[in-house]
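[audit] Reproducing an earlier prediction to check determinism. Same input, same settings, fresh worker. If the tokens differ from the archived copy the diff job will pick it up downstream; this log only records the rerun itself.
[audit] input (365 residues):
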Amino acid sequence: MNLPGRYWQRLNDGRIQCEICPRLCKLHNGQRGLCFVRQALENQIFLTTYGRSSGFCIDPIEKKPLNHFLPGTPILSFGTAGCNLTCKFCQNWDISKSREFDKLSEVASPEMIAEAAKSNGCRSIAFTYNDPVIFLEYAVDVANACRELEIKTVAVTAGYIQPKARIEFFNNIDAANIDLKSFNQKFYKKICGGELNAVLDTLKYLKNETNIWFEITTLLIPDENDSPKEISSMTEWILEHLGPNIPLHFSAFHPDWKMQDYKITPHYTLTRSREIALANGLRNVYVGNVHDKSGSSTYCYNCEKLLIGRDWYELNDWNLNENGDCQYCGTRCSGIFEKLPGKWGSKRIPVKIQNNSYSVNAQAP
């Protein structure tokens, strides 16, 4: 359904300027922004995907990826359609680049979503698959419904959002994974159609003005954003502006959408980048989209003992005490932990939400 949106203004020439993200799309009545889901109608902005989803699935929280927020617990994931960036490597392009609303086959109120999460034993809900910034009003209402049932909310986002909208959006979020596409403005402009500084501003805002737990992911694309020089510059910036404890995930690229002619990221590129980040002072650095027990596990930065062992999304070691401290030396491991880890494992289970009810499908591969 259409819902009046927030963060816009009328311009002197009669157009409506959307102010949800740095694109600041200037629209005549009837026109849609680049994201396709925010539309100028009746001399204001409407969100045209409110209450409609591309699907729901219960995932391990490590799949977001979040390694330091309620490890081992299940999270109910969903998204809508559209995106405010134009990343040529998008791995969810059929959703984020969709111009066909028939992909939004599930209709669910915020209360239905929260109840489905609670009933399925999920500790949290993830706004993911496409960027939740563009469906801010829906995400905020879902977050409010979740709060009533003590369900946490997680935003998987590129952090491409205007300062005023950013305040409301993140005030309703408990944890986030920020997709830092590159540490190169040319890459952002050419490959993603965006601006690096806007994302860096979001990261600094999260660190300095919120209590949100957040982690960072960078997808390494061969010969585009994977040079040792760029990785060193990026991790030095993270250390200086965000501190040593923010987890950083280096993820392997697989050819998709408009970058089918690129090669898969070599494993050694991921491990080399991780070594650079650790040498530059970051304490929690991971590799993803590859099988690497060592590179996906958590270690104490003080005594270097294994704290959380991971094999893909399965937790096979847990050496934190009930306060989240290292059992060997007592050093605090940064994050949001419970006394015991969750036992969800690597299961991925689709959930159907319809007609004020839900059903859990058979486990998907």
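[audit] rerun output stored. Observation attached for the diff report: The first helix runs from residue 93 to 96.
[audit] end
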